[in-house]
Amino acid sequence: MTEKQLLEAIHKEIDGELTEAEKVRLHEHLANDAQAQRLHRDLKRMSEALAQITPETPSVNLKKRIMNAIPRYRYAPQAKSFAKLFFPGLKFHFKYAYIFLFGLAIGAVVTTVVINKTQPLNPAEVSGSLMNPSEQPVLVKQFNFNQENLSGTIAIKTNSNFVFTEINLRSSAELDIRLEFNAQHLDFNGANNLQTERMQLIREANLLQLRGATVSGTLMFLRKTGTESGLRLIVLNGDEVAIDEIIGVK
Amino acid sequence: MTERDDAQLVGECLSGNVNAFETIVDRYQKPIYNAALRIVHNRDDAEDITQTVFVKLYENLAAFNPKHKLFSWIYRMAINESINFIKQKRAAGEPPSTLLALDKTPEENYSDAALRESLLGALMKLDIDYRVVIILRHFEGFSYEEISYIIEVPEKTVKSRLFSARQNLREILIKEGVTPND
Q1: Which of A29, A116, A187, A201 shows a CA-CA span of 20 to 30 A to A232?
Q2: Distance from CA of B137 to the nearest CA of A (A)
């Protein structure tokens, strides 16, 4: 056995990669080579000691940190095929699919032209009178601030049709308020009494963002389904994170 | 109830089921945290790396190839993230993290705990490429083939790197007066 072969055999034995015949050959060699014996014993002992090092447990809030950090609305729930529900034998025909897609494309273009709003929106455009809900909203969560550089409240309320976010915040720095929501469950429906001074409103498919020194008004989200949903509320006061919380809405 | 396999969980995540991702986090946060911890040697940094890895995993779930194990894929991300972290730290001129003060478990006798401490210390003195193969082989029990996928080098390189890593580790221990058979 050459030195290279010997070293390889020792390491392979540690990794459980030697055949029985190779093992016999190795141990025959070791019996007559004290230096190789020492190396073999050291590496084996070291390998056993490494295997005995027990893994540590991360802190209990690591999972919460991870779940708060993921962009949870990235993957929208799949729509159920109602057609299949009523007509289980329904087959897919490409020629009809092309016609349908063509119609859909024309519809999308027309819809975009008709209802497209330039972003960021002018808050004055979305301000209006809040429809008086028939059912009194209940308070889900309220945040109060009474600090030198940030004061006021944010209250999340809901009834069976809407989720209301009542904001009344004043900051000595620049406020950046973001509301992330699942567009499958919630739809931004309008705003009421929004203060327009030094404020900017940006609207995306699943995000509403307000910036300004003073932010006050009520944002209204239509509940599209009866299922539980959630809003991620992030408030940045200058560089400081004042709120980063997911609020479940039943 | 049978446990959902990883590919099934990924499918559920892509259908908008965030709870399925929570199951993935439950399943793998500990080994990923430990792999990062053994590389960067600092608990807070290891937690930050673990968080980054899972966020990147979630963002890239659609690119998951079921031909490979999810665990190996997450590991690949964790190893890359940890190595980048070390490189950035080095580039910024920051000193390497100090050794962890690990508590001895009641079942351990002194020499076991001492050897473990010495081994972890010696591991930190190994070149980062060697350290990574030791962690993957000895702490996580990955095969040569899996290590080859995780660190993106041929299997032959994995073997030679692993053999050299063990011998270097032994030499460091001997230099420090700790022979593995102490």
Answers
A1: A116
A2: 9
Query: What is the model's pTM?
Result: 0.56
Tell me the percentage of chain A whose pLDDT exceeds 90: 20
A10-40 burial code (b ≥16 CB/10 A, e <16)? bbbbbbeebeeeeeebbeebbeeeeebeebb
B27 conformational bin, left if phi > 0, alpha if psi -120 to 50, beta if neither: alpha
Q: Is B164 on the interface with A (CB under 8 A)?
A: no
- % of chain A at pLDDT higher than 70: 81
Q: Which of A146, A203, A149, A141 is nearest to A211 (CA)?
A: A203
Using alpha carbons, list the distances in angstroms from residue B166 to A53, B130, B149, B154.
16, 8, 20, 19
Return the SS3 of B3.
coil
B159 chain-A contacts, CB cut-off 8 A = 11
Letter for the amino acid at A109?
V
Q: Show the tokens assigned to B47.
A: 């937690």
Residue A198's nearest CA partner among A228, A169, A166 is: A169
A8 contacts on B by Cβ (under 8 Å): 163
Residue type, B40: V
Q: What is the mean pLDDT of each run of 10 residues along chain B (182 residues)?
A: 77 90 94 93 93 94 88 93 90 62 44 74 91 92 92 94 93 80 52
The residues in B 82-121 lying below 8 A from A, measured between CB atoms, are: 105, 112, 115-116, 119-120
Chain A residues within 8 A of B179 when measuring between CB atoms: 42
| Closest to B140 in 3D by CA, of B71, B64, B58 | B71
pLDDT, averaged across chain A: 81
User: Residues 167 to 196 of A: which have CB under 8 A from any B CB?
Assistant: 182, 184
Using the Cβ of A228 and the Cβ atoms of chain B, whether some distance falls under 8 Å is answered with no
> Kind of pairing, strands A229-237 and A162-181?
antiparallel
pLDDT digits (tens, 9 = 90+) for A231-244: 889 888 887 888 88
Looking at the DSSP bridge assignments, the partners of residue A244 are A234
